[in-house]
Structures are given as structure tokens and as C-alpha cells.
């Protein structure tokens, strides 16, 4: 019980959510290269650690599909089209429930103040799921919207801020972990200019 209050990440019962990292937003989002790189690395880490991955695309007919840098590593992950802002569509919720026992979600994507924010609210309030928000993997078109959303989310119970590297090393937990070298290799990759926590 104490571990749950502290927000300690555990690979058993954790999933990755990728929110709307789509082609149309490439030139619009503040520090979009960092969002893409971080999300790509988190997808690959999820693959290494066998975490379920859930992906949404906001109205892809107009906004395009998930950027290829991320899409190429999605494998069997199901991609859900949506018009509502939260990722928690009825279709995704059904697939999420079918996995069973997921109590923690790592979350990357855009935009922080709309789809990411509302996803956090739904996961915590409706599903009693801890959200671990990768601050180096979420952004908005305007920095003021991103920073305001992060300040608001920092006040919510059940929402924990982390960086992608912080999360992946916590999931591994020990240099003797059989997947440590793969996770360590991901952490050493060159990164674009990073996003700040707030």
C-alpha cells in the first residue's frame, strides 16, 4: 500500500499510452522533435519490457497518422481513432480492461493541456489508475498551455511526473535485470533539445 502512495513504477501492471503524436502536428508543437524522440524511445522500452502499448490518433482523416518514427516500432499495438479529446474512448477502455491488472500508465503525447490532461483525469477518476507523465514527452503548441497544464496536473492525486529515463530505469530497478543493457542502450541515444518539467 505504501508503494502505491509513493507511485513506485512496476513493470508488472504498467502500460504505455501514446496520445496523438501525428504527422499534422509536426511543425506546430513546441519542441515536437523531443516529443517524437522521447515517445519513440518509450515505445521501444515498452517492447523490451513487454509493457502493453495503447495508441490514439485524433481524427486521422484530417490530422494524419502517428509519425513514422514511432509507428515503425508499434508492432501489434492497436491504434484507436478518436474525436473525443481523452484517450479513454469506449474502444480503448474495452481493450485496456481486457489486459487486466493494469494499475499504472506511462503517458506521452500531445497536446498537454487538452488530450493529455483529459486522459489523466479519466484514468485517475474513472479507472483509479496511476498516471506517470513523462514530462520530456508531452507538449502543446504554446508553452503557456503546456506549463499551465503541468502545474494543474502536479496538484492531482494519482498523477506523478517523471522523465522517460527516470521511468525506464525505475521499471528495471537493478543492473542485474536481464533487460538492463537494452534499456541502458536506449538511454544513451542522442536526444534533441529537451523539454522542461514546468
TrEMBL record:
User: From which lineage does this chain's organism come?
Assistant: Eukaryota, Viridiplantae, Chlorophyta, Chloropicophyceae, Chloropicales
Instruction: Tell me the organism.
Output: Chloropicon primus
Give a single Pfam family match: Isochorismatase
Report the transmembrane regions from the record: none
Which residues does UniProt call coiled coil? none
Residue ranges of domain Isochorismatase-like in the record: 14-157
| Family of the protein in this entry | Belongs to the isochorismatase family.
What is the name of the protein in this document? Isochorismatase
Amino acid at each position: 500500500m505504501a508503494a502505491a502512495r509513493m507511485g513506485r513504477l512496476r513493470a508488472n501492471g504498467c502500460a504505455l499510452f501514446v496520445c496523438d503524436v501525428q504527422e499534422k502536428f509536426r511543425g506546430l508543437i513546441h519542441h515536437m522533435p523531443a516529443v517524437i524522440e522521447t515517445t519513440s524511445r518509450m515505445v521501444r522500452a515498452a517492447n523490451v519490457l513487454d509493457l502493453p502499448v495503447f495508441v490514439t490518433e485524433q481524427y486521422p482523416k484530417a490530422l494524419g497518422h502517428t509519425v513514422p518514427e514511432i509507428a515503425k516500432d508499434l508492432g501489434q499495438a492497436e491504434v484507436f481513432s478518436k474525436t473525443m479529446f481523452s484517450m479513454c474512448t469506449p474502444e480503448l477502455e474495452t481493450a485496456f480492461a481486457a489486459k487486466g491488472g493494469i494499475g499504472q500508465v506511462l503517458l506521452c503525447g500531445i497536446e498537454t493541456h487538452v488530450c493529455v490532461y483529459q486522459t489523466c483525469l479519466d484514468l485517475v477518476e474513472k479507472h483509479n489508475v496511476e498516471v506517470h507523465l513523462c514530462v520530456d514527452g508531452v507538449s502543446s503548441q504554446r508553452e503557456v498551455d503546456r506549463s499551465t497544464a503541468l502545474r494543474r496536473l502536479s496538484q492531482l492525486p494519482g498523477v506523478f511526473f517523471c522523465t522517460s529515463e527516470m521511468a525506464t530505469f525505475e521499471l528495471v530497478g537493478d543492473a542485474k535485470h536481464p533487460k538492463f543493457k537494452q534499456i541502458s542502450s536506449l538511454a544513451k541515444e542522442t536526444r534533441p533539445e529537451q523539454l522542461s518539467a514546468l
